[in-house]
Write a structure and sequence with these properties.
Elements (H helix, E strand, L loop, with lengths): L7 E4 L9 H10 L4 E7 L11 H7 L6 E7 L3 H11 L3 E5 L6 H10 L3 E6 L17 E5 L12 H18 L4 E5 L6 H8 L3 E4 L1 H4 L4 H9 L1
Parallel strand pairs: 1-8, 2-3, 3-4, 4-5, 5-6, 6-7, 7-8
Helix pairs in contact: 2-3, 3-4, 5-6
């Protein structure tokens, strides 16, 4: 696992032009991105529908970048096998979803993938504490998940990031802390100051006039 003190930039494909997804994937790659973030939404766990395992399969041949897949779905356990076969490198599931969290994380790990656990802005860090020793990544959502273009929820989310970083250090754990939602060149520094190291950004990167310089700027 890469060092959890290294800043990692992960453009969100949700903000790309899906009509030319191969080109958009390569654009992120050539811009110097570290990972690609794929937001899967089922229209049930969140109010939006994005894409499924077939889309992940379509992305995979275009890049060797880490495919960091975030399942915003009610039953991640039920669809796990499909996403594993689609070529994900890491699968992040929500603590609020309807599944046995420990079991789902163990199944992701057993398939040889990295596993992540996500929590929404309204969810307390207490909910994920029992699983921190079992994960490669903790995703603290910095907006209410479902739609892009929302504002960064600093007051609700940064104390959780700071607390997770403190626990990680105290217990000698190695999980990454990822933030997703409203991340741009200003908020990335707030997140980093609180202990986050993986920055998911959609519009700020895919919508930038010059993606390589936007990635470089976000890396700091």
């Amino acid at each position: 696992m890469s060092d959890c003190n290294t800043r990692i930039i992960a453009p969100s494909l949700l903000a790309s032009d899906w009509g030319k997804v191969g080109e958009e994937v390569r654009r992120a790659d050539e811009a110097g991105s570290d990972w690609l973030h794929l937001d899967v939404m089922d229209g049930h766990f969140v109010e939006n529908i994005s894409f499924g395992p077939q889309f992940v399969s379509a992305v995979r041949p275009h890049t060797s970048l880490t495919l960091d897949t975030h399942l915003m779905i009610t039953r991640p356990d039920k669809y796990l096998e499909m996403f594993i076969k689609a070529g994900c490198d890491r699968i992040t599931v929500h603590v609020e979803a309807e599944h046995d969290v420990a079991d789902t994380l163990a199944n992701i790990r057993a398939a040889g993938l990295q596993c992540g656990l996500a929590l929404n802005p309204a969810t307390s860090l207490e909910e994920v504490k029992p699983f921190l020793g079992q994960i490669d990544l903790l995703l603290v959502m910095t907006v209410v998940p479902g739609f892009g273009g929302q504002s960064f929820m600093e007051a609700e989310t940064m104390p959780k990031v700071a607390e997770a970083a403190r626990i990680r250090s105290e217990k000698g754990l190695g999980f990454h802390i990822q933030v997703d939602g409203g991340i741009d060149h200003a908020t990335v520094e707030i997140a980093a100051a609180n202990g986050a190291n993986v920055m998911v950004a959609g519009t700020a990167l895919y919508g930038a006039p010059d993606m390589p310089s936007a990635v470089k700027q976000m890396r700091g």
